[in-house]
Amino acid sequence: MTAAGIDDATHRTILAVWRIEQPRLITSLARMLRDVPLAEDLTQEALLAALEHWPATGVPDKPGAWLMATAKHRALDHLRRGRMLARKHGMVALDFEQEQQAMPDFDAALDDDIGDEMLRLIFTACHPRLSREARAALALRMICGLTTGEIARAFLLPEPTIAQRIVRAKRTLSESGLAYETPRGEDLSERLASVLEVVYLIFNEGYTAARGNDLLRPQLCQEALRMARVLTSIAPQEPEAHGMLALMELNASRMAARTDAKGEPILLLEQNRSLWDQLQIRRGLQALARARELGGGGFYVLQAAIIACHAEAATADATDWRRISVLYAELSALARSPIVELNRAVAVGMAEGPGAGLAIVDGLAHEPALRNYHLLGSVRGDLLHKLGRYEEARVALEAAAQLAGNRREQELLKRRAAEAASAAAML
């Protein structure tokens, strides 16, 4: 292998390790420094150090430990500089001692209230002083390690818009003196909706990756599920927390059936249902039942009810599409989201015929949020194919493939476009 090839391979390794380790690094440093934006800055310095040293020295046997040690050394240097500056100004030692005497045991309080380091960070990033949109973007970028592009895809917004939100949110968090903290009582409730949104978006990125060569990122799904289970314990009377857990459990139950041995996607109606995890389905249905007992009928509870219709159907033909279309209508009235309407179009197309579904899709054609959303063309192409309008289906599917960021989705859409082209040629 050439030197350039070695450097390229090392660079890819560094980025892969970084993607896995970044959340853990920020979590550890934030606990040391009580300052989330500063923790994020110092982890970035550790990444730069790896990019500088590893191409020359090789990737360490324990790259995560190397990054952690480097980041902590920088954090200690920062603390030492702070202490030196404090000594020059005098009085600080006395102030610190008095503050410590008056200060409650934050670590114990954090453990009592939340009991999960990652969730504490997400609650910190979801402070009410930040806008709702900025809270989620900041948490996903800094704490959960998603790229700006992945976050933009989740919100169906341009990358520069998301980047600006993150910069402004970090500035607000730093300048306002809002340090690493745990909310209590009403403060916790006030942030809970944003925290649920963040955890759900983490799961979605793991369930269908925005970019890359693999459709799934199972580690993200498992992390989101773990946090969702913790959330139901700290907010046991919140139906949406149970609804979100139900939604994740039911979706995750299909993970083993969503790709073939080569990693290629398998569509829902073509999946081998014997591979669905029945234990996970039972857990999901139990969480949904609990949400309903609590009077839940919100965003996550309705979505979980939709996925439950699939989970309870023994075969694809047994799916209650009319029930699903009704639930999507309720969800659409609640959320006012073009993506929900697009999903409703699929359900209506199955329940009432592809023409009815296509009418809904065509009504979404000029939605700004869906302009670069590949699934709009994917759904439209599928409905056109079912109607025998194969050439139009080919055009829609090829356009969708060009918009898809994930290689597996691109290839699937290209195959479906080729099938439509073959069907058109036979007419």
TrEMBL record:
Annotated RNA polymerase sigma-70 region domain residues: 22-82
Pfam family, one: Sigma70_r2
GO biological process: DNA-templated transcription initiation
Residue span(s) of domain DUF6596: 191-291
Domain of life: Bacteria
InterPro entries assigned to the protein according to its UniProt record, in alphabetical order: DUF6596, RNA_pol_sigma-70_dom, RNA_pol_sigma70_r2, RNA_pol_sigma70_r4_t2, RNA_pol_sigma_r2, RNA_pol_sigma_r3/r4-like, TPR-like_helical_dom_sf, WH-like_DNA-bd_sf
Segments passing through the bilayer: none
GO function terms (MF aspect): DNA binding; sigma factor activity
Occurrences of domain RNA polymerase sigma factor 70 region 4 type (ranges): 122-173
Protein name listed in UniProt: RNA polymerase sigma factor
Source organism per UniProt: Bradyrhizobium sediminis
Lineage, broadest ranks: Bacteria, Pseudomonadati, Pseudomonadota, Alphaproteobacteria, Hyphomicrobiales
